C-alpha cells in the first residue's frame, strides 16, 4: 500500500501574528515557519502504518514556495520515503491545491491520502474534502483513530457531540485531528539521512492547474481589541461585579 | 437571488447553529432550507416555522439517517443548480460535506464567515482569529459556512411550505458504523449563555466536579482547554479553541487556563470574560474583564458558595 501525505509550510503555531500596517495581509517576513501541526500528525499516522507492515511507501507532497522543501525534508526525516514539491509563490487556494493533488494521485496511485484537518494559517478546513470529491473517494475527516481493514478503513471522527465511526471503501481520504497521535521528533541521524532522500520538483503547470485565485483578499484587519479589564481582590467582589453587570 | 441553507437536525428538531446560518442567508434574498434525513418530518416542519424560510425541501431516505458527507453532498448537488448561494453552519457536519459540494461545483468555499458585507464579500477570521480578512468571491455561485456565534439566531414564526424531493442516487462508498456521544444534562457549549471552562490547572478529571458544581448553580455549560482534554480530564468535545468549539457566551469563566492563542481563538468574542488563575502573568488576564489571582481550589468552591 502506498500513502500520500500533503503538508503545508505555515507560520509556527506559537507565533502571535501581526497584521501589516497597510492591511494587505499578515507580517510573514522573518517569522518562524514550520510544518502545519495537523500535517505532522498525518505523517506520523502514515509512518505508524508503515511500521505495522501495512504500507510500503510514503510520499510527502507540498505545494508552495521553494522553502517548502524544508517542510518536505522534515517529513522525510520523520520517516517518509520521498517528496514532491510543486513550486508556487503566492496564494494557493484549497480548490487549486486539491486539483494538483488529484493529478498527483493519478500518477502515483496511492491507496490512502492523509491530510491535516485544517491549516492554521487560512483555517479553511477544505482541502481533504475537496480532494475526496474530485477523486470520487470517501472521506474520514477529523480522525482520532484509524483502523485498517482489507479493502476498507474504519475512521473514528471527532464530531460536535462526541465520536462517530465510519467505514470507508479504499482508496480513501483521511484528515487528522489533534488526538490521532503524538508526532515523533526527527533524530539527528534521520535528519542527515533525509537529505539524501529524493524530492521531485514540479510546477502547477506540469499538472495543468490554473492557480488564479477565485477569492480576492480585499483587506486584513486586526480583530477588535478587548477593553482592558480589572483585577478583583476576592470572590465576593467578583460576584458583586458580575451581578452589577446582570450576567448572573 | 435565492439561498439554500442546509438544515442541521436530529430528525426531530433543528439544531441551533442552523438558525445563525439562516440569518446570514437572508442577505441573499429568498431563503430555502434543505432537510435531508430519515423520518425527518418533524425536523422539516420545525425548519419551515423558522422566520425567513419560505420553502423547505425534504429528502427523506434511509441514506440520510446519519449525515455521511458523501451522501449529503450528493443530495445538495442534485438541487444546487437552482440556487445562487449554498450555506451551512460551520459545525463538524457542515465543515465535513460542504467542501465536497464546492469542489463538485468548481467553486472556492468561503469558510466560517462572521459577517456578510455584500452578496460577494464576506469577513472571516484567519490565523486562529488573530486577523480578520475581508474576501471577495468571483465565483458565480457562493458556497459558504457560517460561524454560529457571529450571527443572531433566526426567530420562530415562519410559514414556509414543505416540499418533498427525491433522494439522490446513493454514492455507497462509505457507511456509518456507530457513535459514542457524550451525555450531559447541561446546556450545549455552542449555545450556552454561560460557560465555565477548566484547564491544565484543574489537575485531574475528578477535580472538574468543583467546576460542575458552579455550572449547575449558574445553568452553565462546562468547557475545557486543549491541555485538559489531552490530559484526559474531560472528553474532547468539551474543547474550546481554534481546533475545538468556537463559543461566544454572555459570560465565560476560565479556570486554571493560561490563555494560549489557540484557546483564545475559541472564546475571545464572549461578552464578559472572567479568569481565575494563580499566575498573575498568565496571558488570559490580558483578555479578561475580571481577573482573580487566586488558587482555584479555594476560589471555585468559594464562588459556588457565594452564588
Describe this structure in words.
The complex is a heterodimer of chains A (248) and B (307). Chain A is α/β, with parallel strands linked by helices and 248 residues long. Helices cover 27% and strands 31% of the residues of chain A. Chain A has 6 helices and 13 strands. Chain A has helices at residues 37-51, 68-78, 94-108, 127-135, 188-194, 235-245; strands spanning 2-7, 9-11, 33-35, 57-64, 82-87, 112-116, 139-148, 152-159, 162-169, 172-176, 199-202, 215-221, 230-232. In chain A, the strands form 2 sheets. In chain A, strands 9-8-7-10-6-1-4-5-11 form a 9-stranded mixed sheet, sandwiched between helices. In chain A, strands 2-3 form a two-stranded antiparallel sheet. Chain A is globular, with a radius of gyration of 21 Å. The relative contact order of chain A is 0.18. The model of chain A has no long low-confidence stretch (mean pLDDT 97). Chain B is built from 8 helices and 16 strands. Chain B is an alpha/beta fold and 307 residues long. In chain B, strands 5-9-4-1-2-3-10 form a 7-stranded parallel sheet, sandwiched between helices. In chain B, strands 13-12-14-15-16 form a 5-stranded parallel sheet. In chain B, helix 5 links the parallel strand 12 (194-198) and strand 13 (221-224). In chain B, helix 3 packs across helix 4 and helix 5 (208-218) runs parallel beside helix 8. The longest helix of chain B has 13 residues, at 92-104. Chains A and B meet through helix 3, helix 4, strand 7, strand 8 and strand 9 of A and helix 3, helix 4, strand 5, strand 7 and strand 8 of B.
Amino acid at each position: 500500500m502506498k500513502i500520500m501525505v500533503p503538508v503545508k509550510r505555515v507560520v509556527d503555531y506559537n507565533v502571535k501574528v501581526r497584521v501589516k500596517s497597510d492591511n494587505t495581509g499578515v507580517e510573514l517576513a522573518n517569522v518562524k515557519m514550520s510544518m502545519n501541526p495537523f500535517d505532522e500528525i498525518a505523517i506520523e499516522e502514515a509512518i505508524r502504518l508503515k511500521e505495522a507492515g501495512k504500507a510500503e511507501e510514503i510520499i510527502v507532497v507540498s505545494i508552495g514556495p521553494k522553502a517548502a522543501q524544508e517542510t518536505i525534508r522534515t517529513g522525510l526525516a520523520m520517516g517518509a520515503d520521498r517528496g514532491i514539491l510543486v513550486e508556487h509563490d503566492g496564494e494557493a487556494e484549497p480548490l487549486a491545491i486539491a486539483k494538483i493533488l488529484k493529478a498527483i494521485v493519478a500518477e502515483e496511485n496511492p491507496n490512502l491520502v492523509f491530510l491535516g484537518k485544517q491549516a492554521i494559517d487560512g483555517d479553511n478546513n477544505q482541502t481533504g474534502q475537496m480532494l475526496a470529491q474530485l477523486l470520487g473517494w470517501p472521506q474520514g475527516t477529523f480522525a482520532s483513530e484509524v483502523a485498517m481493514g482489507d479493502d476498507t478503513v474504519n475512521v473514528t471522527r471527532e464530531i460536535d457531540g462526541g465520536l462517530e465511526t465510519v467505514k470507508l471503501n479504499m482508496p480513501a481520504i483521511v484528515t487528522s485531528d489533534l488526538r490521532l497521535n503524538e508526532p515523533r521528533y526527527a533524530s539527528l541521524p534521520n535528519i542527515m539521512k533525509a537529505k539524501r532522500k529524493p524530492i521531485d520538483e514540479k510546477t502547477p503547470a506540469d499538472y495543468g492547474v490554473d492557480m488564479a485565485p477565485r477569492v480576492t483578499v480585499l483587506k486584513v484587519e486586526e480583530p477588535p481589541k478587548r477593553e482592558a479589564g480589572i483585577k478583583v481582590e476576592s470572590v465576593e467582589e467578583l460576584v458583586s461585579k458580575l451581578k452589577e453587570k446582570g450576567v448572573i | 437571488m435565492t439561498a439554500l441553507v442546509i438544515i442541521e437536525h436530529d430528525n426531530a428538531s433543528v439544531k441551533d447553529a442552523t438558525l445563525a446560518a439562516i440569518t446570514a442567508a437572508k442577505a441573499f434574498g429568498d431563503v430555502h432550507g434543505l432537510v435531508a434525513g430519515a423520518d425527518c418530518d418533524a425536523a422539516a416542519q420545525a425548519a419551515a416555522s423558522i422566520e425567513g424560510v419560505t420553502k423547505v425541501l425534504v429528502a427523506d431516505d434511509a441514506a440520510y439517517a446519519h449525515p455521511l458527507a458523501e451522501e449529503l453532498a450528493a443530495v445538495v448537488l442534485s438541487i444546487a443548480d437552482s440556487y445562487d448561494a449554498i450555506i451551512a453552519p460551520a459545525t463538524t457536519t457542515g465543515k465535513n460535506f460542504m467542501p465536497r459540494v464546492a469542489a463538485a461545483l468548481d467553486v472556492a468555499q468561503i469558510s466560517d464567515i462572521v459577517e456578510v458585507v455584500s452578496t460577494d464579500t464576506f469577513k472571516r477570521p484567519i490565523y486562529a482569529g488573530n486577523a480578520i480578512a475581508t474576501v471577495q468571491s468571483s465565483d458565480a455561485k457562493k458556497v459558504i459556512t457560517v460561524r454560529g456565534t457571529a450571527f443572531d439566531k433566526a426567530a420562530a414564526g415562519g410559514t414556509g411550505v414543505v416540499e418533498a424531493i427525491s433522494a439522490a442516487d446513493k454514492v455507497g462508498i462509505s457507511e456509518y458504523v456507530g457513535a459514542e456521544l457524550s451525555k450531559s444534562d447541561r446546556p450545549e457549549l455552542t449555545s450556552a449563555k454561560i460557560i465555565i471552562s477548566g484547564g491544565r490547572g484543574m489537575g485531574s478529571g475528578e477535580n472538574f466536579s468543583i467546576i460542575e458544581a458552579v455550572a449547575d448553580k449558574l445553568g452553565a455549560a462546562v468547557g475545557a482547554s486543549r491541555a485538559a482534554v489531552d490530559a484526559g480530564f474531560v472528553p474532547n468535545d468539551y474543547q474550546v479553541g481554534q481546533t475545538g468549539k468556537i463559543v461566544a457566551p454572555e459570560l465565560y469563566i476560565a479556570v486554571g487556563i493560561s490563555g494560549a492563542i489557540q484557546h483564545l481563538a475559541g472564546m475571545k468574542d464572549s461578552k464578559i470574560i472572567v479568569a481565575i488563575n494563580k499566575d498573575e502573568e498568565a496571558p488570559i488576564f490580558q483578555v479578561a474583564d475580571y481577573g482573580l489571582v487566586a488558587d482555584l481550589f479555594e476560589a471555585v468552591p468559594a464562588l459556588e458558595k457565594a452564588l
